[in-house]
Known about the structure:
The protein is an alpha/beta fold. The chain has a single domain (about 5-315), classed as 3-Layer(aba) Sandwich (Rossmann fold). The chain has helices spanning about 5-20, 20-30, 50-65, 75-80, 85-90, 105-115, 145-160, 200-220, 240-245, 245-250, 260-270, 305-315; strands spanning about 45, 65-70, 95, 120-125, 165-175, 225-230, 280-285, 285-290. The strands form 2 sheets. The chain has a 6-stranded parallel β-sheet with strand order 3-2-1-4-5-6, with helices on both faces. A two-stranded antiparallel sheet has the order 7-8. Helix 1 packs parallel to helix 2, helix 3 crosses helix 11 and helix 7 (about 145-160) runs parallel beside helix 8 (about 200-220). Bound molecules: NADP nicotinamide-adenine-dinucleotide phosphate (NAP). NADP nicotinamide-adenine-dinucleotide phosphate binds near residues 235 and 236.
Amino acid sequence: MSFAQLAAVAGFYGRFTPSFSRIGFQARRLGWRHIPWRFSGQRWLVTGASAGIGRAIARAAAEGGAEVVAVARASARLEQIAVGLAPEPAARLTTLPADLSLVSGTAALLEMLTSEGRPFDVLINNAGVLLNEHRMTEEGHEASFVVNLLSHYQLTEGLLAAGTLANGATLVNMSSGGMYSVPLGLEGLDVTDPARHVGKLAYARHKRAQVALTGDWQRRLSEREMAVYVMHPGWVRTEGVRQSLPVFWRVQRPILRQPIEGADTALWLCATRPVPRADVIWFDRKPRPVHLFSQTRQAGCSVEALREFLQRQLDAAA
Ligand SMILES: NC(=O)c1ccc[n+]([C@@H]2O[C@H](COP(=O)([O-])OP(=O)(O)OC[C@H]3O[C@@H](n4cnc5c(N)ncnc54)[C@H](OP(=O)(O)O)[C@@H]3O)[C@@H](O)[C@H]2O)c1
């Protein structure tokens, strides 16, 4: 590593570690009012709920009285999600397996959810992956593009079209501080050429696009009194981080947040429903800027072009 690269890495960790790690969470929580999570009478849909942050959100919501549908791929982990909960919250948690890396997997999930005809009060689009190795799906897309972005768009639009998101519903999209490094653009969202795949860059682009989509949903859905938020959980100690960022994991592990700490802002947003804003990302219970670096302000496309691009992928798969 050159001196310049070393300086860049040191600058990055020096700037973000105090805030994004557990240190930031513990310091900020000193100023927070204790809010018991009360979600009785609500129906929640949480994706990526078999592990990490999504699991912590699903369990806390069920403990707060919500009826929770927890989605992830079929696995022992998904079946174990209620282990350790008291009988009543455990009974409020149901699991629904779906592979969100496939348009057909999300379509099948939508079919199940909308045919029940029971609306959700909360949707947490949390499923996300950082794939260092290039992986194509059988439908011809790069897998992380579909899990991180296309499935969120497909699920949300599908639930809205079917009336399965109640008027007044809360929608939380789980983004990442990784998005601070890139501008919005269509280029590089769905990288089908393995030679051009850089997992971290693809992930950052998907997470930036989520921020733009959230602003668009917020503007479109406010007349239905829906509250739409995008958030960043900080750096959280999860299996996803261990697998996708092994060096970061080794260095930062002692100060990574616990999953329930990463889940905190999502739960707080749903419990308090602050006035939504189209131009912020929520982090540790506060709205934060969506740009930290001047070079990301110049978007490579409009949000309308992003929506059209995502819709074209769905139409092509239909
Ligand atoms: N951890 C962090 O520091 C951090 C920081 C910033 C943002 N985030 C974001 O927070 C979210 C959760 O991250 P995490 O760290 O908790 O991740 P994680 O521990 O790896 O959990 C990811 C969840 O997504 C599910 N998932 C993955 N592929 C799927 C697929 N094809 N279909 C359905 N579900 C799938 C996984 O379930 P199965 O594998 O069982 O299907 C699991 O439940 C992600 O969106 C991530 O980008 C995390």
